[in-house]
Design brief:
transmembrane, 5-stranded antiparallel sheet, 192 residues, Alpha-Beta Plaits, alpha+beta, 4 helices, 23% strand, membrane
Length: 192
């Protein structure tokens, strides 16, 4: 009987040991890899949600920028007029016509145009400077309005380097030394 009891105990402990081995084996071979896979998927989901939020923000910014395209194009056109792309004429004939029209608007006479050879800018290598001289005749008030318009309103970028005012036959004579600019970098034309 003792032997039978011992055999029963062996079977009981052997069965328990086998159950424990199966549970541990099942845990390490089946359940733990599933938990690891689940954690990896949850981590990937969290990363994707963060990335999605970032991309949605970028999309919202792009949509906001898209609404501003017309103003960006207008700014580009304005910049292209201020700093035209260099050609064989450097856009000087057009600029002189603008100055003469501007002079007529302010009742001054624009004449005595002279230009030096274009020079590459020392500060911006893609920009060429066009040194010019110009004579403006008229009343001081009109010349002042002409100069203000020349520096702040008219589309072509110019820098007045030197100005000399003297009395003349029809009022005052203003001799200007100025620099106009052109660029050697062509940009896309979006309209006038």
């Amino acid at each position: 009987m003792r032997n039978a009891r011992r055999i029963d105990q062996l079977w009981l402990f052997g069965g328990l040991a086998l159950v424990i081995v199966f549970v541990l084996g099942g845990w390490f071979m089946v359940i733990k890899p599933q938990h690891t896979a689940r954690d990896t998927v949850n981590s990937d989901i969290a990363d994707t949600e963060v990335q999605l939020a970032t991309e949605r923000k970028k999309l919202a910014e792009l949509k906001a920028d898209q609404k501003k395209v017309a103003s960006y194009k207008a700014a580009l056109v304005s910049a292209q007029k201020a700093l035209p792309y260099g050609t064989t004429t450097n856009k000087i004939p057009e600029f002189l016509k603008q100055l003469q029209t501007l002079g007529a608007t302010y009742q001054v006479e624009v004449s005595g145009y002279g230009a030096s050879a274009p020079q590459v800018s020392e500060t911006v290598p893609t920009v060429t400077e066009l040194p010019m001289t110009l004579n403006v005749e008229g009343k001081v008030e009109n010349i002042t309005r002409f100069l203000k318009h020349l520096q702040t309103v008219q589309p072509r970028a110019v820098l007045i380097e030197n100005a000399r005012l003297a009395t003349g036959d029809a009022g005052w004579d203003l001799s200007l030394s100025l620099t106009a600019f052109i660029t050697s970098t062509e940009t896309m034309t979006v309209g006038s």
